Structure formats: structure tokens, C-alpha cells
Amino acid sequence: MPANDRTPVTVIGLGAMGTALAEAFVGAGHPTTVWNRSAEKAVPLVAKGARHAGTVEEAVAAGPLVITCLTTYDATREALEPASATLVGRALVTLNTGTPEGARRMAGWAEARGARFLDGAVKNVPTAVGAPGTLLYYGGDKGVFDTYERTLRVLGGDTVHLGDEPDLAALYEQAVGGLLLPALLGFFQGAALVTARGLTAGTLVRYTVKWLEMIASELPAIAEEIDSGDYTRPRATVGIFHQGIANVPQLGREAGIDVSWHLPMHALLERAVADGHRDHSISALVETLRKPE
């Protein structure tokens, strides 16, 4: 049955992100049923118009579309197990973190219980849920995506189906998400540097944003180098980055900050040079990553 813009939705898991998902559905006028192990987390949502199910079975039975937002695939299976028989014929969408293998296992579990499975990822913070530019991507049953796309777009205007393989969202979540902590650590190191001089971290923001914009502008060319395997026309070489290794310990001593988080990256650069990539583009590091020690 085609979903309209008022499809009943069940949201299971009411942490910060799960609560934001439920609020978006309620705000868009969807009949929204919620469930969480700690029932008190449902109280603010009920005040906004959601219905609180007393059991997970009751929550799953409330509508054709069940969205889970728990910490892991294991936690999702554990929470849903009592409602296994109720999942038959329903669409199950998981929005949690995990590996591609975990997503494949989750898909097998759901399909064995007669559910149609779609795995997804929200690529933003809870406060951005529902915004036109918020990205969510999904992998799995295309029929589920097509049927409920209009409903899923309530969560973010940039909603994408990556393909029928159930682990694609987890694959891209890990591939893209790996950028976050290194980028933040770079900013935190900068903040430690300037605040040690009596300046504020806020003074870094404008310049950091410009730097990130420059990096973003280079990504298409870097991706083309990786896809072609041709690293011989570099904008910046592995050697240039390798030469900078010596500056980092000195910086740490001068500023009195911990720079040890650089050590694994330095080791990677050392291996790349040893592999003959000194004069190649920095994107040749992907070849070293493909050959773990």
C-alpha cells in the first residue's frame, strides 16, 4: 500500500537522536508511536502528540513503518526480539551505528522474521533533523524506500538510496565518518595552541572554516587520482607532508601540549616513503592503507 504524507510511524529508542526523529514525525502530522526501555523518556513526546506504547510488541504493531534508533545492531535485535512475530510484513528501518557486517547480519535477522529491511544513517546532529539540507542515506530494500520515501524525507531533505545491498549505509557511514575525529582533533590542537597564548578558540573558527573549504574543493581531484591510480601529477606530495614530521614534536614542546596523536599518521607517512611514494600525490597514502602492517 503506497504511503502518503501521514503514514503512521513507530520510533523505538528515545535517546537524543531518536527523540529528534519522533519530534520531526509528530511535527509533520504523522501518527507517531514511541517506545523506550526507560518509559520516562517518552513523556515530553507524548505532551507534543506522540502515543507511548507500553510494550515493544505494541509499538511494532502500531503501524507499517518501524524506525529504530538504538546504539548498535545487537541492541536493536535485543530490543525487538519480543516483537519478532509482529514484524511480519512490516518495514523495518534501522538508524544506528555499526559495521557493514553488522548491517548484513541485521538484514538477515529481519528478513528471517518476515520484515522488509532498510538500513540508514543520519549524517548530522539531532538538532538538524528535519532541515532541508540534512543528509540521510539508506541501503537495502528499494521497495521500502520507494514506498516510504516521502515519509523518510521528513527527517531530512537530502535523502538518498544508495542501493539494494543492506550494508551500503553502514559502509558509507564508516567511510565518511572516519573524517570526523581527526578533523576535530586538529581543531582541538589549534584551540590548545591559541588559548595557551591567552587567545580564544573562537578566533580560530573563521580561518578553520576557510581551510576546510579549501580541503573540500580538493576532494574531487583527490578522488579522481585514487580512482585512476595515477599519483604522478601531485598538487602536494607525500614528501612535503613527511618533511613536516620534525616540526610537530618541537611545536608540542614550545606550547606544552600533547601531540602524540600524530604518531600513527607519521608512521603511515614513513611507510609511504619507504614504498616509493615520496614524489607522488598525498592521495597515494590510500595505497599504503590498503597494505596494513
Automatic annotation (TrEMBL):
The keyword Oxidoreductase applies. GO terms for biological process: transcription elongation-coupled chromatin remodeling. Residues 9-163 form the 6-phosphogluconate dehydrogenase NADP-binding domain. Pfam families: NAD_binding_2, RedAm-like_C. Residues 165-291 form the NADPH-dependent reductive aminase-like C-terminal domain. Signal peptide: none annotated. InterPro entries: 6PGD_dom2 (IPR013328), 6PGDH_NADP-bd (IPR006115), HIBADH-related (IPR015815), HIBADH-related_NP60_sf (IPR051265), NAD(P)-bd_dom_sf (IPR036291), RedAm-like_C (IPR048666). The keyword Oxidoreductase applies. GO terms for cellular component: chromatin. GO terms for molecular function: DNA binding; NADP binding; nucleosome binding; oxidoreductase activity. Keywords: Oxidoreductase. PANTHER family: CYTOKINE-LIKE NUCLEAR FACTOR N-PAC, OXIDOREDUCTASE GLYR1-RELATED. Belongs to the HIBADH-related family. This is NAD(P)-dependent oxidoreductase.
